[in-house]
Amino acid sequence: MSEPSTTALTGTRRQRHLRDNGRVTSTPHELPGWTHVYSGKVRDLYRPDPASGIPTAPEGTMLVVASDRVSAFDHVLSPGIPGKGELLTTLSLWWFDALSDVPNHLHADHAIDDAAESGARSLIPSEVAGRSMLVRALDMFPIECVVRGYITGTGWLEYQESGTVCGIALPSGLSNGDRLPEPLFTPAFKAELGEHDENITFERVVELVGREDAEALRALSLSVYGRAAAIAESRDLILADTKFEFGRDAASGVIALADEVLTSDSSRYWDAAAWNSGTTPSERMASFDKQIVRDWLAANWDKTGTPPELPEEIAERTAARYRELLERVTAA
User: Fold this and answer.
1) Contact, 119 vs 111, CB < 8 A?
2) Which of 281, 278, 315 is nearest to 296 (CA)?
3) DSSP state of 163
4) Is the N or the C terminus of the chain less surrounded, counting Cβ atoms within 10 Å?
5) In this predicted structure, which of 111-115, 247-251, 297-301 has the lowest mean pLDDT?
């Protein structure tokens, strides 16, 4: 993952700047041997601090720490979801391992085994063990690589109005939650924190990153989605849609999968049996993510001022959905 404060994107790409995330539910840790450089809605980013005198990671290494923070409607809420950071990290590491032939930003010796005492894991401070990944800095593409295998959410709203999803024409007669004739690559331009990502056409991606890279990002996204969807199906799960982030390794020029991958925060999973037997959209498409939080907040907040505190019961129910997904995906 590239360091957000210094990542310069060349050509028609933009310079992305740090912005304060505003109200958060936890303060980034002070970690010996590391300097905190950035906080997003969920993740905190650190770089090695050579001045500390503590042996730490090689140059070009970043530490990504997933917090328990949860956001909805562009606000970070309080309290967080208990154990969320560790659940997200564990699921990401499992998917990186399952897709090990796809280049990614993890250090090569970043063992998935929690008991590993050597290699990259040994460099992770104990204060954030279990919720952290040691990664190589990449030059990140300013694109959210979204893949949709099913029609729902904002795609369903657009389809009802125009028969399209992100401008792509679809057959008539589809219902909310239906499987698409084929997965769609529907990219978005990464917005600054606090703003919405902007859905863009493939030709706009070409303008931003060049045709060769645009085609590579599309092919990689569709390929990884197809493989992940098949794995999910073997666990009686539907991977309705997901988003990937990619960056380029400056030394090798290789495009690598970065950030989180195929987690509850970046993907929409449904229970296959419920999808087949449910009679309402809420039954068919109960997702393993923070939808419980969104629904509660929508019913209890008018989206003005400061969001209300989440009830403990809502936070615990959300955590249970995250845990269930992890257990089902990683089951042997």
Assistant:
1) yes
2) 315
3) S
4) C
5) 111-115
- Domain chopping of the chain, boundaries: 1-332
Q: What pLDDT does residue 191 have?
A: 66
**HEC secondary structure over 167-223:** CEECCCCCCCCCEEEEEEECCEECCCCCCCCEECCHHHHHHHHCHHHHHHHHHHHHH
Reported as a single tens digit per residue, the pLDDT across 27-66 is 577 898 899 998 888 899 999 888 877 766 777 889 999 9
CATH class for the domain made up of 1-332: alpha beta
Q: 125: which 2 tokens?
A: 């401070």
pLDDT reading at 257 higher than 60? yes
Output the pTM of the full model.
Answer: 0.87
Cβ–Cβ under 8 Å, residues 253 and 101: no
**CA 139/CA 248 separation, integer angstroms:** 5
